[in-house]
Specification:
The chain is α/β, with parallel strands linked by helices. It has helices spanning 22-25, 29-42, 44-50, 55-65, 70-79, 90-99, 112-117, 134-137, 144-154, 168-176, 187-198, and strands at residues 4-7, 14-15, 85-86, 103-108, 130-133, 161-165, 180-183. Strand 6, helix 10 (168-176) and strand 7 form a beta-alpha-beta unit. The mean pLDDT is 96.
Length: 200
Amino acid sequence: MIKNVVFDVCDVLLEFDSLNFVYEIFADKQRAAAVRAAIIEFDLWNKFDVGPESETVILEEFMETYPHIAQDIKLAVEEAPKYELRCAYAIPWIKELKAQGFKVFIISNYCQLMLKARPDTIDFLKELDGGFFSCNVHMIKPHADIFAKLCADYILKAEECVFVDDRPANVEAAKQCGFEGLVFKNYASAHAQLRRILNY
Protein backbone atom coordinates (compact mmCIF):
# COMPACT_ATOMS: atom_id res chain seq x y z
CA MET A 1 0.00 0.00 0.00
CA ILE A 2 1.36 3.40 -0.98
CA LYS A 3 1.72 5.82 1.93
CA ASN A 4 4.23 8.34 0.58
CA VAL A 5 4.41 10.52 -2.52
CA VAL A 6 7.88 11.64 -3.59
CA PHE A 7 8.07 14.47 -6.12
CA ASP A 8 10.81 15.71 -8.35
CA VAL A 9 10.85 19.53 -8.37
CA CYS A 10 12.05 20.92 -11.72
CA ASP A 11 9.44 20.54 -14.44
CA VAL A 12 7.04 18.95 -11.98
CA LEU A 13 6.40 21.45 -9.16
CA LEU A 14 8.17 24.32 -10.89
CA GLU A 15 9.01 25.27 -14.45
CA PHE A 16 12.53 25.91 -15.69
CA ASP A 17 13.71 25.05 -19.17
CA SER A 18 17.34 24.49 -18.23
CA LEU A 19 18.55 24.29 -21.84
CA ASN A 20 16.38 26.77 -23.70
CA PHE A 21 16.14 29.70 -21.27
CA VAL A 22 19.12 31.23 -23.10
CA TYR A 23 16.84 32.05 -26.02
CA GLU A 24 14.97 34.41 -23.70
CA ILE A 25 18.20 36.15 -22.69
CA PHE A 26 19.89 36.65 -26.04
CA ALA A 27 18.12 38.29 -28.98
CA ASP A 28 20.92 36.92 -31.16
CA LYS A 29 19.92 33.29 -31.67
CA GLN A 30 23.44 32.28 -32.66
CA ARG A 31 24.77 33.53 -29.31
CA ALA A 32 22.01 31.68 -27.52
CA ALA A 33 22.69 28.48 -29.45
CA ALA A 34 26.42 28.69 -28.68
CA VAL A 35 25.78 29.04 -24.93
CA ARG A 36 23.20 26.24 -25.01
CA ALA A 37 25.64 23.91 -26.78
CA ALA A 38 28.35 24.73 -24.24
CA ILE A 39 26.00 24.06 -21.31
CA ILE A 40 25.21 20.62 -22.72
CA GLU A 41 28.81 19.73 -23.57
CA PHE A 42 30.14 20.92 -20.21
CA ASP A 43 27.24 19.21 -18.36
CA LEU A 44 26.81 22.40 -16.34
CA TRP A 45 23.57 21.68 -14.51
CA ASN A 46 24.63 18.24 -13.28
CA LYS A 47 27.90 19.72 -12.01
CA PHE A 48 25.99 22.47 -10.22
CA ASP A 49 23.44 19.99 -8.87
CA VAL A 50 25.84 17.50 -7.32
CA GLY A 51 28.56 19.83 -5.97
CA PRO A 52 30.45 19.72 -3.67
CA GLU A 53 32.62 22.23 -5.54
CA SER A 54 31.37 25.78 -5.21
CA GLU A 55 29.42 27.08 -8.16
CA THR A 56 31.94 29.92 -8.45
CA VAL A 57 34.70 27.39 -9.11
CA ILE A 58 32.54 25.48 -11.60
CA LEU A 59 31.55 28.67 -13.41
CA GLU A 60 35.19 29.80 -13.66
CA GLU A 61 36.12 26.42 -15.14
CA PHE A 62 33.20 26.66 -17.56
CA MET A 63 34.25 30.13 -18.74
CA GLU A 64 37.88 29.04 -19.12
CA THR A 65 36.76 26.07 -21.22
CA TYR A 66 34.85 28.36 -23.61
CA PRO A 67 36.80 31.66 -23.52
CA HIS A 68 35.28 32.94 -26.77
CA ILE A 69 31.82 33.09 -25.13
CA ALA A 70 32.89 33.50 -21.51
CA GLN A 71 30.95 36.71 -20.89
CA ASP A 72 27.81 35.29 -22.48
CA ILE A 73 28.12 32.24 -20.22
CA LYS A 74 28.51 34.45 -17.15
CA LEU A 75 25.44 36.49 -18.10
CA ALA A 76 23.36 33.37 -18.79
CA VAL A 77 24.16 31.81 -15.42
CA GLU A 78 23.46 35.08 -13.59
CA GLU A 79 20.14 35.53 -15.38
CA ALA A 80 18.99 31.89 -15.22
CA PRO A 81 17.03 32.16 -11.93
CA LYS A 82 14.72 34.77 -13.45
CA TYR A 83 13.27 32.10 -15.71
CA GLU A 84 12.18 29.76 -12.94
CA LEU A 85 8.49 29.71 -12.01
CA ARG A 86 6.63 27.76 -9.35
CA CYS A 87 3.60 25.97 -10.80
CA ALA A 88 0.28 27.30 -9.51
CA TYR A 89 -0.91 23.76 -8.74
CA ALA A 90 2.11 22.81 -6.61
CA ILE A 91 0.92 23.80 -3.14
CA PRO A 92 -2.75 22.80 -3.68
CA TRP A 93 -1.59 19.38 -4.95
CA ILE A 94 0.62 18.81 -1.92
CA LYS A 95 -2.17 19.90 0.44
CA GLU A 96 -4.66 17.64 -1.35
CA LEU A 97 -2.40 14.62 -0.88
CA LYS A 98 -1.75 15.40 2.77
CA ALA A 99 -5.47 15.84 3.39
CA GLN A 100 -5.92 12.30 2.07
CA GLY A 101 -3.44 11.05 4.68
CA PHE A 102 -0.33 10.69 2.51
CA LYS A 103 3.10 12.01 3.40
CA VAL A 104 4.82 14.10 0.75
CA PHE A 105 8.57 14.33 0.08
CA ILE A 106 10.91 15.62 -2.62
CA ILE A 107 14.07 14.32 -4.27
CA SER A 108 15.39 16.89 -6.70
CA ASN A 109 18.49 17.54 -8.76
CA TYR A 110 18.82 21.21 -7.86
CA CYS A 111 21.60 23.71 -7.31
CA GLN A 112 22.56 26.31 -4.72
CA LEU A 113 22.29 29.03 -7.37
CA MET A 114 18.52 28.56 -7.56
CA LEU A 115 18.10 27.95 -3.83
CA LYS A 116 19.72 31.27 -3.01
CA ALA A 117 18.33 33.36 -5.86
CA ARG A 118 14.71 32.15 -5.95
CA PRO A 119 13.41 31.02 -2.55
CA ASP A 120 9.99 32.27 -3.68
CA THR A 121 9.69 29.43 -6.19
CA ILE A 122 10.19 26.75 -3.54
CA ASP A 123 7.82 28.14 -0.92
CA PHE A 124 6.04 24.77 -1.02
CA LEU A 125 8.84 23.30 1.13
CA LYS A 126 7.01 24.24 4.31
CA GLU A 127 4.16 21.95 3.27
CA LEU A 128 6.39 18.87 2.92
CA ASP A 129 7.20 16.04 5.29
CA GLY A 130 10.81 15.99 4.12
CA GLY A 131 13.21 15.29 1.31
CA PHE A 132 16.29 16.99 -0.07
CA PHE A 133 18.02 18.73 -2.93
CA SER A 134 20.97 17.05 -4.62
CA CYS A 135 23.31 19.99 -3.97
CA ASN A 136 22.90 19.50 -0.21
CA VAL A 137 23.62 15.76 -0.18
CA HIS A 138 26.03 15.55 -3.16
CA MET A 139 24.03 12.82 -4.87
CA ILE A 140 22.00 13.06 -8.05
CA LYS A 141 19.31 11.07 -9.77
CA PRO A 142 19.19 8.55 -11.33
CA HIS A 143 21.77 7.00 -8.96
CA ALA A 144 20.23 4.54 -6.52
CA ASP A 145 21.94 6.01 -3.47
CA ILE A 146 19.71 9.09 -3.45
CA PHE A 147 16.58 6.94 -3.18
CA ALA A 148 18.17 4.81 -0.48
CA LYS A 149 19.07 7.94 1.47
CA LEU A 150 15.47 9.16 1.45
CA CYS A 151 14.27 5.84 2.85
CA ALA A 152 17.02 5.73 5.46
CA ASP A 153 16.64 9.35 6.60
CA TYR A 154 12.85 9.22 6.96
CA ILE A 155 12.44 5.53 7.84
CA LEU A 156 10.39 4.80 4.73
CA LYS A 157 9.75 1.52 2.94
CA ALA A 158 10.44 1.79 -0.79
CA GLU A 159 7.38 -0.29 -1.65
CA GLU A 160 5.21 2.25 0.19
CA CYS A 161 6.45 5.15 -1.97
CA VAL A 162 5.50 6.45 -5.40
CA PHE A 163 7.99 8.67 -7.22
CA VAL A 164 6.87 11.33 -9.70
CA ASP A 165 9.47 12.73 -12.13
CA ASP A 166 9.44 14.14 -15.66
CA ARG A 167 12.45 12.04 -16.73
CA PRO A 168 11.76 8.38 -17.49
CA ALA A 169 15.33 7.37 -16.51
CA ASN A 170 14.80 8.75 -13.01
CA VAL A 171 11.46 6.98 -12.66
CA GLU A 172 13.00 3.72 -13.84
CA ALA A 173 15.81 4.12 -11.29
CA ALA A 174 13.26 4.59 -8.53
CA LYS A 175 11.42 1.47 -9.68
CA GLN A 176 14.67 -0.49 -9.55
CA CYS A 177 14.90 0.60 -5.90
CA GLY A 178 11.42 -0.73 -5.17
CA PHE A 179 9.35 2.45 -5.59
CA GLU A 180 6.20 2.74 -7.65
CA GLY A 181 6.84 5.24 -10.45
CA LEU A 182 4.97 7.79 -12.52
CA VAL A 183 6.41 9.77 -15.43
CA PHE A 184 5.13 13.34 -15.29
CA LYS A 185 4.03 14.79 -18.64
CA ASN A 186 1.54 17.39 -17.50
CA TYR A 187 -0.40 18.15 -14.35
CA ALA A 188 -3.82 16.95 -15.54
CA SER A 189 -2.67 13.49 -16.58
CA ALA A 190 -0.26 13.06 -13.66
CA HIS A 191 -2.93 14.10 -11.16
CA ALA A 192 -5.36 11.58 -12.59
CA GLN A 193 -2.77 8.79 -12.72
CA LEU A 194 -1.63 9.46 -9.18
CA ARG A 195 -5.20 9.35 -7.89
CA ARG A 196 -5.61 5.94 -9.51
CA ILE A 197 -2.36 4.68 -7.96
CA LEU A 198 -3.33 6.02 -4.54
CA ASN A 199 -6.96 4.94 -4.89
CA TYR A 200 -8.72 8.08 -3.69
